[in-house]
Known about the structure:
Radius of gyration of chain B: 35 Å
CATH topology of the largest domain in chain B: ABC transporter transmembrane region fold
Largest interface: A-B, 188 and 173 residues
Helix content of chain B: 55-70%
Helix content of chain A: 55-70%
Number of helices of chain A: 18
Order of helices and strands of chain A: HHHHHHHHHEEEHEEHEHHHEHEHEEHH
Oligomer: heterodimer
Low-confidence stretches of chain B: 350-377, 599-605
CATH architecture of the largest domain in chain B: Up-down Bundle
Amino acid sequence: MRMWRALWRLIKYRPWLYAADVAAWVAILLTELGAGYIAKLFFDSLTDASPAGLTIWSIVALVIAGGIARILTVLAGALIDIRHRYNMGSLMRRNLLASVLARPGAESLGRSTGETLNTIRDDAQAIEDTISWLIDQIALLVYAAVALVILIAIDARITAIVVLPLLTVIAAARLVGKHIHRFREASRRATERVTGAIGEAMEGVQTIQLAGAEKHVLGHVRELNKERLHATVRDRLLSQSLHSFFWNTVTLSTGLILLAAADSLSSGGFSVGDFAVFVIYVGVLAEVVAEIGDFMMHFKQGGVSMERMADLTRDETASAVVVHAPIHMSGPLPDVVAPRRTADDRLEELRAENLTYRWPENGNGGVNGNGRFALRDISFAIERGEFVVITGRIGSGKTTLLRALLGLLTPDGGTVRWNGMPIADPAAFFVPPRCAYTPQVPQLFSDTLESNIRMGIDVSPEALEESIRLAVMEDDVPQLQKGMQTLIGAKGVKLSGGQRQRAAAARMFIRDPELLVFDDLSSALDIETENLLWERTFARGDQTYLVVSHRRPALERADRILLMVDGKIEGIGTLDELLTEHEEMRRLWA
Amino acid sequence: MKVPIKQYYNLLSTYLRSQWRWVAVLAVLILITIGLRLANPQILRTFIDTATEGGERSILIRSALLFFGIALLTQALSVAATYVGETVAWTATNALRLDLLDHALHLDATFHKDHTPGQMIERIDGDVATLSNFFSRFTIDIVGNGFLVAGILALLFREDWRIGLPILAFAIVTLILLIWIRKLAVPYWTKYRKLSAEFFGFLGEHISGREDIRANGAVGHVMRRFYEFVQKMFPVRLRSSLGGYSMWMANVGLFAFGHAVAFGVGATLWRASLITIGTVYLVFHYTELLRGPISEIRTQITDLQRAEAGIRRIRELMNTESRLDDEGTAHLPTGPLGVRFDGVGFAYEAARVSSAVDQEDADASEEDNDHEPEMVPALHAIDFDLAPGTVLGLLGRTGSGKTTLARLLVRLYDPQTGAVRVGGQSVGTVQIADLRRAVRKVPQEVQLFRATIRDNVRLFDPSIDDERVLDALEHLGIREWVLGLPDGLDTMLAADGGGLSAGQGQLIALGRAFLADPGLVILDEASSRLDPATETLLEIAVDRLLENRTAIVIAHRLSTVERADQILILDDGRIAEFGQRHELVADPSSRLSRLLQAGLEEVLV
Lengths: 590, 605
């Protein structure tokens, strides 16, 4: 029933368009019934069973007029249905994207990007189909009802004999439904593994090429392909068997008409025209039942798609998938609202109390997983204007601390306070103008350099230039083919590693946040560039920094250093203090 | 219009040849079904004529039962055809997917820079999926339905040529019109699929980058770009979908016309007492039956429109050639390799212009030279020589060309001028596979796969057994760590390569290099993201790796260059300094010494 509720919600998104869609498809099917009835008139006029007195040529004219009417109704139906489908598909995709972006940014989606894309592409498509086919079902019911009334008017007994086998079909579909669900799910999973592997192979193409591992990666995908073949063929075979079973009822029903009508046809109580319209309309009814049977199968498969989308949004009711939101199909696009700085945003003190984080236990946490503590009872405070460095050896929890603090991972315990006020939703809170963050391996996007730095922030060209200068990138920009307008390629690959990091830094500076958080910003920079960068940023004054680093330029400048060991804070102090008190600090410094 | 028969034929014969037996079985199954469909109206005519003329009841019953028999047989055959057809189609398209992936894996870096992984999924899986039906049924249905149409017409001619002729004319006109309409939609399909690939490329990239997007408050910006796509895609989608509907509309109009013809002819002949009422019904029924095959042909043609767009894009991908020719035949010796750069010059954007088509574009753009900024050279006239077994420390500011230099050594690009020599051979003359076996680059950013630790270290090479994998891990000092994981070597890494920290990932990358046993190692900042404590651990491993090998170590920190025998400093794509490390350190006027004095003494002990 969750599926119905979700569909209903989608229908209500564009109710008038939906109603128009239904009306158009009813019209299309009724013109089709008209064509069948004209055939009856034709045979009756030949055998003089018709009192209407229509001539052959007026019937021929009627046939052609009917054809033109159908063309026009199909055109109208197409224009409405395409638009309606597009609305539905875009809304779901919008909601999926919005929900993915709303998740804590560093939390695993539990699936690869390729798999996530698969859900956004194919599962949304499947529901788009379901919605559109639901319209067909409504129209088909009207169609069937009209056909049935005409048949009963001709001969109620024969009609009854024909309708019974049709009912068995519905029962059959119910029985097989469960397996379809399972097979479809297996086939989808196998497909996901293939697309996931292709995506990874493309992402890591350089690694593969340089290792000469093309052949082996192909072998890996070949195995996944085989699994997909088996799963898909099984799924299709079951669907197709059911499908042809439905269609077969048409022929079986026609056989029934032959048996039932034999006597009345001989006695003249049943004309050839009646027979013609019976064969056509029974075909219609069987088609309707088959279509509805098909739809029920698709509906079950659609249920799988809906579940997967709901799973991606982490909302079992799927309401996040179908929530109403503007999709801006026409008219001006929404302005990207620049965050307004209020007095409350000014940072006086940031305080973490007993922050705790455990690796998730779902097995997906991989090698680090299974509920181990990543952070345990972390408490510290940063005052306005301070430069605080987090250091520690690999795996000591530095990055995890930043992520848990900023809400990019959901902490298992502890409080974060901004000027003494506890923050309820850190992921929503730690954004510009309060805070900006650059991860260890910053991601850039397939767009111009300027657009990557701005990412929607509307500031003056001078401010853009200043952010470039602060990031020590002013010498690099003119070297690029089209300066700030250079397209930097997928993930920014056309830039060097250092340029990517500095572009990400510029992206922070342009946002002019109260608190700047860098995770190992300088790892791809040389010492001179790093020194210059810190010099320029410090010259601005009045900003607060939280930085993960183990490099001397940062450690030496630090007002305070948090030394981390195994997810705990080993010591807090200046470099000199820590060097005298902690063996670990001496090892890191050495 | 052009039906690219040759292309279809080539695809079909390439991917179906190995399965010809199954294709034959499929053909037989479909042909039998067609025969059964031709028999149906004949039974109905007998029935009507017998009934209206007051014939025997047993004939009527027999006719009805025959109907049931045919129904059941059709059922069985269609299930069998589905099984065979789907298996054939998936076998063929899977082979095509692998070929495309194989091809894409061999394309050079310039190509991959322009194509996001999301785009490539769409091109390798999405485009091929549209071909699936094409492979299983297209030819057989077109041929089979052609037979069905021919059979219907022959049976109508057998009744009376005055029936056969008009219906034949109708069938011909219908097919010609439907085929003509077909070509209207193709460009829109191509455009739609291309736009859709771009759209999913955009989504994929932004899903991977969501940490950056969230933390920099750029969600609104991303959503705005999503809406831009929504607006941009609708008109294209509308036109391409209408292309499909136009076939249906034509079909409806034409069949209204067909019925008019059948009614006119049937009534005229019946009035002249040339045919029975049962035959009038037969004519009507066969005309109606034509709708089936013609509408199936229409469906196949709609699929073909999709498939054709897919085929076009597949060919486009297949015809994209790596700009690195791999015609070299020379082999590299085992053991440490010498390196020599002879007047090497290289620029990235110039590297783009190379195929004939691109050349034309380049010529065209030269005319409006004002808009084209000058080429930015990445390396100029690089000359140096490195003896086998020496370790070179490569220094320079970001963007000075260090990474580029390394890329030329493994032939991710070819230089425009000069020659890069490894082991005495110009790298262009060595088979790429051989070159990359002997020269191993440990990259800056490690790519991990959703697979076991074992497969991540050996990169899916099934010939490398656990012993060798563990041996490599032992060298790195992480054997115990891996074996201590819940599933040891079988531990699965999470979907996005997650589960390992950046540093742990780099240990895996070093393991990969160990396994390859190269003669030249290029360490591209391999230790840049490791904290010093782990670095100490790694240093031992790196020392082992470099033992009896030539190495080029790229690092920003001078400390990592301590193990270097020679130093090369790059500045803006030129060699600023090259020499023995200890000599440069001793010479106070050297660039290296100046670097050390610029407040960085701390870096070298």
